[in-house]
Automatic annotation (TrEMBL):
Keyword field contains Secreted: no
Main location: nucleus
Organismal lineage: Eukaryota, Metazoa, Chordata, Craniata, Vertebrata
BZIP domain segment(s): 26-71
Top-level division of the source organism's lineage: Eukaryota
MF GO annotations: DNA binding; DNA-binding transcription factor activity
Keywords for this protein: Activator, DNA-binding, Nucleus, Transcription, Transcription regulation
Protein name as it appears in the record: cAMP-responsive element-binding protein-like 2
SUPFAM superfamilies the record matches: Leucine zipper domain (SSF57959)
Extent of Basic residues compositional bias: 10-21
Spans annotated as Disordered: 1-23
A GO cellular component entry from the record: nucleus
Location within or outside the cell: Nucleus
Claim: Glycosyltransferase is one of the keywords in the record: no
C-alpha cells in the first residue's frame, strides 16, 4: 500500500505541507523589514499628530462654549 492518505476525497501526499519557504536573500529581507518599520513609525507619527490636533480643536470648542455659557448665565440673573 502507498503512503498517500485519503482526506475528504482528496489524496494527500506525506511531507507536502504548504509551500516550501523561498530562498530569500537575508540582506534584502532585513532591508524590507527596516523599510516596513520606517513606514509604520511614519504612520504612527501622522496618527498622533492628527489626534493631537483633534484634541486641541475640541478643547478650544469647550472653552468657547464655557464662555458662551458664562455670558448667558451672567445675563440671566
Amino acid at each position: 500500500m502507498d503512503d498517500n492518505k485519503m482526506v475528504a476525497g482528496k489524496v494527500k501526499k506525506p511531507g507536502k505541507r504548504g509551500r516550501k519557504p523561498a530562498k530569500i536573500d537575508l540582506k534584502a529581507k532585513l532591508e524590507r523589514s527596516r523599510q516596513s518599520a520606517r513606514e509604520c513609525r511614519a504612520r504612527k507619527k501622522l496618527r498622533y499628530q492628527y489626534l493631537e490636533e483633534l484634541v486641541s480643536s475640541k478643547e478650544r470648542a469647550i472653552c468657547a462654549l464655557r464662555e458662551e455659557l458664562e455670558m448667558s448665565v451672567g445675563f440671566g440673573g
